[in-house]
Amino acid sequence: MEPLQADDPTLVGRFRVVGRLGVGGMGRVYAATAPDGRRAAVKVIRDGLADDTGFRQRFRREVAAASAVVGLFTARVLDADPDAEPPWLATEFVEGPSLRDAVLTHGPVPEPALADLARGLAEALAAIHAAGLVHRDLKPANVLLSPGGP
User: Fold this and answer.
1) Which residues 6+ apart lie within 8 Å of 30 measured at CB?
2) Closest among 46, 137, 57, 51 to 88, alpha carbons compared
3) How buried is residue 12: exposed, middle or buried, by Cβ count under 10 Å (0-12/13-18/19+)?
4) Of 106, 75, 71, 79, which Cα lies nearest the Cα of 92?
5) Active site residue 51
């Protein structure tokens, strides 16, 4: 986690922002705390996209569909506001490195663990597809390795 910068929010919806997790094409992802103390990851959409009416409509659909995803190997949506300035989405915080970072640090995933990883990813994708979604950004950097699985 990186420290907050001067232009970062300290509050998004009801979530208190405590650090930066990453920056991507859609915006920034922050580590945050919910009012009940749970840790959350909050994606805040960048201004250029937030100003695009078509993007807002797609983001509303994404929030609705992601909220319908229920699976052991998926991060649950905690809250979202696609109509906020800027729009945002909060999910459960997943403790653990990305698959990318784990491979860069420790090398290839050993064969027994690879089978477990594949089963967990297949189950996550099945839950996502059951909610009517297609995951269009599945890559090692977006797979988090928690103590409970991917």
Assistant:
1) 4, 8, 9, 12, 17, 18, 19, 20, 21, 41, 42, 44
2) 46
3) buried
4) 75
5) no
Residue with tokens 């990813």, as numbered in its chain: 121
Q: How many residues does the chain have?
A: 150
Using alpha carbons, list the distances in angstroms from residue 132 to 4, 43, 57, 61, 127: 35, 21, 16, 11, 9
Residue 145 tokens, joined: 């390795």
Q: What is the pTM of this model?
A: 0.87
pLDDT at 136: 82
Is the C-alpha dihedral spanning 26, 107, 76, 39 positive or negative? Answer: negative
Q: What's the pLDDT at 85?
A: 93
The Cα 56–Cα 44 span in angstroms is 12
User: Would you place residue 133 in the very low, low, confident or very high pLDDT band (cuts 50, 70, 90)?
Assistant: confident
